[in-house]
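Internal QA ticket QA-208
Title: Verify multi-chain structure generation after dependency bump
Assignee: T.L.

Test input:
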Amino acid sequence: MLSKKDVTDLVYERKRQAGLSWASIAEGIGMSEVFTTSACLGMNALPRDKADLLVTNLGLPQEAAVTLAEYPTKVWDRSVPTDPCIYRFYEIVGVYGDTLKELVQEKCGNGIMSAIDFHMEVEKVPNPKGDRIEVRMSGKYLAYNAW
Amino acid sequence: MLSKKDVTDLVYERKRQAGLSWASIAEGIGMSEVFTTSACLGMNALPRDKADLLVTNLGLPQEAAVTLAEYPTKVWDRSVPTDPCIYRFYEIVGVYGDTLKELVQEKCGNGIMSAIDFHMEVEKVPNPKGDRIEVRMSGKYLAYNAW
Amino acid sequence: MLSKKDVTDLVYERKRQAGLSWASIAEGIGMSEVFTTSACLGMNALPRDKADLLVTNLGLPQEAAVTLAEYPTKVWDRSVPTDPCIYRFYEIVGVYGDTLKELVQEKCGNGIMSAIDFHMEVEKVPNPKGDRIEVRMSGKYLAYNAW
Amino acid sequence: MLSKKDVTDLVYERKRQAGLSWASIAEGIGMSEVFTTSACLGMNALPRDKADLLVTNLGLPQEAAVTLAEYPTKVWDRSVPTDPCIYRFYEIVGVYGDTLKELVQEKCGNGIMSAIDFHMEVEKVPNPKGDRIEVRMSGKYLAYNAW
Amino acid sequence: MLSKKDVTDLVYERKRQAGLSWASIAEGIGMSEVFTTSACLGMNALPRDKADLLVTNLGLPQEAAVTLAEYPTKVWDRSVPTDPCIYRFYEIVGVYGDTLKELVQEKCGNGIMSAIDFHMEVEKVPNPKGDRIEVRMSGKYLAYNAW
Amino acid sequence: MLSKKDVTDLVYERKRQAGLSWASIAEGIGMSEVFTTSACLGMNALPRDKADLLVTNLGLPQEAAVTLAEYPTKVWDRSVPTDPCIYRFYEIVGVYGDTLKELVQEKCGNGIMSAIDFHMEVEKVPNPKGDRIEVRMSGKYLAYNAW
Amino acid sequence: MLSKKDVTDLVYERKRQAGLSWASIAEGIGMSEVFTTSACLGMNALPRDKADLLVTNLGLPQEAAVTLAEYPTKVWDRSVPTDPCIYRFYEIVGVYGDTLKELVQEKCGNGIMSAIDFHMEVEKVPNPKGDRIEVRMSGKYLAYNAW
Amino acid sequence: MLSKKDVTDLVYERKRQAGLSWASIAEGIGMSEVFTTSACLGMNALPRDKADLLVTNLGLPQEAAVTLAEYPTKVWDRSVPTDPCIYRFYEIVGVYGDTLKELVQEKCGNGIMSAIDFHMEVEKVPNPKGDRIEVRMSGKYLAYNAW
Amino acid sequence: MLSKKDVTDLVYERKRQAGLSWASIAEGIGMSEVFTTSACLGMNALPRDKADLLVTNLGLPQEAAVTLAEYPTKVWDRSVPTDPCIYRFYEIVGVYGDTLKELVQEKCGNGIMSAIDFHMEVEKVPNPKGDRIEVRMSGKYLAYNAW
Amino acid sequence: MLSKKDVTDLVYERKRQAGLSWASIAEGIGMSEVFTTSACLGMNALPRDKADLLVTNLGLPQEAAVTLAEYPTKVWDRSVPTDPCIYRFYEIVGVYGDTLKELVQEKCGNGIMSAIDFHMEVEKVPNPKGDRIEVRMSGKYLAYNAW
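Actual output:
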């Protein structure tokens, strides 16, 4: 069967050949850009009907839909990422980690922001001094149990 | 002289005694919560006038203002954070790192989102299914040079 | 102010002098053994009224209650624990990690067992072939978002 | 000969094609879900008769039974797991490791809970506030020698 | 499609066969030596017209131009490099890292030298006591935000 | 005796009190900014007469001159630096390490650029699009032996 | 209270002053050399009556007996030991680890040698070609569960 | 030529097919179980005549004898082993490392037990309370030089 | 083209078939044993004429000479070597590293021994108490710059 | 009692005050420079009479002789040293490790060079092209056992 990696490679190939953007691929299946991209990269599972739609839209082999709908094992190789575009987000967690904890817990109590019941958007915001990237994360507040 | 760590301890002490929130401390100096908190935790430098104001508002020793305005050396001890509230953000970078790169670069071109010309907000968003935390990051897009 | 570590040391001291068990300390404040012990070791926050009760029961200084009720920063020093009693649990996660994932996700869907909305019990179960330890964990199932 | 990895791949393939659950595979050989799954993932050895039964039930090549009955070398690649579903169990060991040690040793004496003479169950517990996962571990208490 | 690695191998092969230098390859496309070399090694993206020119000049397959113009994922395998020629630069960062920070920040304020809006030159400087290598780096100063 | 660390602390203190820059400290002893700063930070040894001069200029205790002239043991704690201003230089070595090796060896032959017979300058270069930092490194070319 | 480390330091001091050997200390409390030494180094708990006897024999403060009888947390700092005398044992595990597994499991079945229900002896064996050290380990065979 | 790994695979295959034990393979060439096993696993070199005998006994290709007699490069992948059967030996080194050093050096002087001029035996010792594994190591005492 | 690794494999093959020693291979090209061996193992570049000679002497394919003369990228996989024969040299650096630094710098001044302008010899020295290995290293003294 | 570290500090202090070299300290007790230095740095044990002599010569407190004669625990903090003078020796082991193994084993057989029955000398060799450092190591050849 096709592995998640195989499907990612196929998606990249079709995307390049057809000159598609992640935005249009996402729109084609009626889901967000971040979620669609992460599913195509093997880091999330598409609902089965969305997987079928994606397969049709991109002309992928039918069995790719099964793979896209499978629950992924989320693995990353480097505990510290090296690519500068990804490292900067790691750096933000390093620099602002304690601050995030202080503010999450001041606003909501003893708990965390979920990374599971979670969604995220990425946007380009034009700016005369230089365009900006805006990332919005939203996660459910989860309170620690006392028992 | 007082170290960044000394000042952080003093701030925590006054904050606890006076029952202050980070929100009110930030408001008292007219700066954002995230920036003010990170500066109090030693991860950013306050502009000198803001440092003076903070020292007055919290009743800190005068020299604490010098320390708060010093350029910090940003250090974190663990390449993988252990506290669950911070780890979840690390996990987001691990799971969505490649996705963030794909979307930043699709929207803007070959480059990164700056973590220096950068600001961030944290908010609690009430929700009947359970309150949510919203984090908004905004960083300047920086294009790679070709020369 | 007293740190979490200071309070842990004080609790150990009183516990030893008074010949108390974790079971009786927990019973004295009407909470479970696991939660009470973890809070005394600085890994959880006691509700304030429980903290006050603990301070009274053990004859700790009054300010220890503030510390016990503070939200902890959960830190562990070794990514692989060395003490044999703790290592065995690490080994279980290594050996059965993929199995746990398969079964959690077969039973509930694409998601995880929460370690935040979570409780755990430890019990000794007498057995003629040699007593056994029984550990029961219960965590809320959290489904991954699709958006 | 077929490696443990080869057999795992074959099991996954048949499981997917036949739409089987781990629960039904386990039931088919009269063993528990956790143990059966872990053996199919190459982390435990099936008794030979159970291996033969599994091979018959799933229509695997006969020699797969030899492989399933072989004593495995238990290896995991990451000292800190990355998949969120597995990481949460690692986090539990990090947060509650010292607590587990305190309670095991308070209840039984100077010793450990065995991870060898050990069994575990995973269950879904319906709950109006959201279903829960329950994990029950049972390991033999082993006392340290003094000599 | 050709991967960045495939193209690097092809470039090395043609370079060796034709007895070319990086200097002449760079000159052939009208870009600097450092940038051209790094793009051929897969660590930078060539502008598409330069990529086409390079492909023509070296007689590479046409699709190599697409690969050369793709945005690379910048990965290095060793957090501490072992090759002595590269290690010496790592050593310079280790020995002079704090000095670089002091001087950058004394001259410009609280900020950093960008590694993105960045260019570099390498030159041989003849010297009677032994030739010298001169490396010149230029990066845009980026000031930390306060908000 | 005063350790390198003690002297660094004293220098920082005098520098802050007197409002001195590294540039003026260096000028006061007739040496370069980079070298003087690195020696004050304990990463290089000042010639004894320069050390005496520095001690006089800054009003340090006489024995600090002995310490400043001692051969340092150069140690850094993190194989990957975390402060963003230093990390960017580490990133440059990661991204351009192989390129530097290619060009050093194309220009000079099989060898390295010395980090011992080495000097470096840091300069601010005003620029209408934003000021730039320029770093110039010069190291002696050392050829590998064949014997 | 005295920590395990405090007691170890006291034992070393008395041992040196009185010119005692570990052999004689062990004999004085009627236990083996290996166990007695490891308990004095904080890696095992002495039975309380043995702890009292040791305290009397060595003239330690009375409370040292409580410490010696406490259940230790077994921690080692280096995953790879550096002292040559200890490293050689690590090397033996590296070189012969798979061999030990093959032979333990060929002789007894799918299981392990316990390191808990375990004892060890160290002896010097005179030999004309050079004296030898003989180490004898004995651990209970523990079979893996199938359930 | 056959690599050490190739030969190990061949030995496993013949061993399984012929239902041989390491004990009988060792006996067949008149060498010990531990040494024979470790040589078959590629961690030791067989004397050439023994290698020839082994090849004959197991019906291996003739050139396997050359490989078996070659001096191996001893490599292990994990600084901390994960398989429980091997980890327990690692744990013993961690827990008893300092004790081993104390006793080796008390009995013989400043030196080590050799892991080169070394032999080891593994035995099963029947015991009514549960069989035991006995491991006997013997290494030459080597004194540190003073010069 | 042949990689360094390919050529190393070819050299090993011819060496074994022809029953050659490194000594004789080195003599055949008029270079030292250490340098010749290291070049054959891919860690140094042979002068082109020596590479041609080696290729002729061993009957290697002609293009192997190009590979042997190429500047190698020196990479080692393990920061701590495991093979005992190599580890002992690592151990010497660990135990005597500070001593080497003290003596190099006492004899020559603030600087280092070059590992680039460097040569080394290995010899067997017969000795009635057991033969000895003698390793002689010679590296150019390089003084640190002050500027 | 004085620790090894305390004695090292005292030796450094006396050495500096008296303007002594390691060479003269070694000569004063009739032992080699390398061994004497390493013993003063806490990495070797002086014979007791030599320790007494050293204490007398340097005017150290009498109990320092006991410490100097104690068997050290040899520990180094960094698996990869950072100081350039020490790193170069580490680099030599990395680059030439396999070569050293090939030549030791070609000359003597399957075995190693001992780092225990070992001595080393460091010398400055004047040279018109630049002085050189010469390091001579001599270790007993130890053959692997076959049993």
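Spot checks passed. The longest helix of chain I spans residues 84-108.
Status: verified.
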